[in-house]
Amino acid sequence: MRRIGNSEEGSSGSRERLATWWQDMRFALRQLRRAPGFAGAAVLTLALGIGATTAIFSVVSGVLLRQLPYPAPDRIVQLWQVNHQGAETQFSDPNFDDVRARSHGFGGLAEFESGRVVSVSGDVGATRAYMTFVSHDFFDVLGVRTVVGRPFAPEEELVGGGSAPVVVVSWGFWQRIFDGRSDVLGKRLAIGDQTYTVVGVMQPELDFPAGTELWASRELVPRFGRTAQNWEVIGRLRPGVRIDVVQRELNALAHTLADQYGSETLMAAAAVTPLREQLVGSARPTLILLLAAAVALLLIACANVANLLVARLTVRQGEIALRMALGAARSRLMQLCLSESLALAGAGGVVGVAMAVAGTRALIEARPWPLAARVGRPHRRPGARLCARSLPRDRSGTRTRDSLACDTRRHPGDSIGRSAILVRWVVGSHTAGARRRADRDDARAARHYRTPRA
Q1: Residues spanned by the domain of 105
Q2: N or C: which end of the chain has fewer CB within 10 A?
């Protein structure tokens, strides 16, 4: 009986403490409503600090802190020719072919152009999209796969292969133009004077070059000599190979080509840069400076709110003295002040989140930050990955259009689905804990009231 009584007393004490906190919170809200100037100044000061810091950190996280969404992203590099004046330039077709054939530190090399905006018609109506021509191994170098269909077949990567031009579309283009329908394969897109057939849809993580919605085979573009520097090059290092090793290898290869072809190569050396550093290097100083300024603003905002609270306590000295004269404990008075601070912090946080959303959009629109498409999005898309992996394949390993049995737009891998899973987990854990406590109390009661043996 003593144990049951202690349990009941503990639960009643918890209820009393919660009731006291709720009473103090209501009183704090009434007090703030009576002082709108003080409440408004404190809430806006906190909101400005929280909103600015959150908005800038969102951009910093998406651009600087996250890894590229590809397998082993630290092994993906970008290559440049270095001419005799020391300037970095793009590659020509013959130089790229020589580097790909003679270098040994790369698991794969691919060339691509910077991209262009094209008009698209045909089975999709009239629209505009960003199109990039890429060589074979481009998708393998990045380590990406199609979620529907396939990439380029070998015969589609050969000059004069006899096959019709094909194109691989991005996830966003598939959702925007085809509404995510499974009959996208085989659709015809009229681009310029050629008609392309859609053969695949890329996974949503692929956004390289930035904004690209259509990838076509580089072999559709005419090839030129060593003086035509038209192509950018990316490569994937072999496991265990360092950048400085391939740098020395490429420099030696550049000297060999210069001795073999003379000044026609326009390649005195080569430069190798990690792809992540290539994409975000120019934006790093600006973002770090903005983040430092935002943190300083947040600290100033907190100091100003603390000064406002101290000034308000000075005004309420008479009230506090009267409460202490009536027998209020110091802990009770501290709880009352803490309730008012929590109310201000909650209101400032809510307004700050709204400011952060608007501020993030303004930052992205004010300047084309690299990798800006990832800002504010989850680092992973498990729903899309699960949908892609669950698609059955035919004998050639191609995901068929009839096998698209799930729609990632409704898949629980998005943020709403993850929130629902978290809520179910929390509620389930709470229910299981309550059930265990009830079983334990019943067992204790049964032991206490057990009939003694004769």
Answers
A1: 73-280
A2: C
Instruction: Look up tokens 């703030």; give the residue.
Output: 32
pLDDT mean over 231-249 = 93
Nearest CA to 286 out of 363, 352, 377, 355 is that of: 363
- Alpha carbons 175 and 173: distance in angstroms, whole number: 5
Average pLDDT over residues 374-381: 56
Rounded CA-CA distance 79/231 in Å is 10
**Section 8-17 average pLDDT:** 64
| Counted domains in the chain | 2
Beta bridge partners of 127: 120
Residues 312, 33: Cα–Cα separation, whole Å? 14
pTM attached to this predicted model? 0.67
Tokens representing 28 are 């704090």
CA–CA separation, 379 and 343 (whole Å): 32
- End-to-end, the C-alpha distance of the chain in Å comes to 22
Alpha-carbon gap, residue 215 to 387, rounded angstroms? 22
Question: How far are the Cα atoms of 34, 425, 427, 437, 444 from residue 434, in angstroms, in the given order?
Answer: 41, 14, 11, 5, 15
Q: Is residue 103 part of a domain?
A: yes
Instruction: Give the pLDDT confidence of 88-125 residue by residue, as tens digits.
Output: 899 998 999 999 999 999 999 999 987 889 999 887 77
Cα distance between residue 139 and residue 152, in whole Å = 10
Residue the block writes with tokens 């990955």:
385
Q: Which residues pair with 120 in a beta bridge?
A: 127, 191
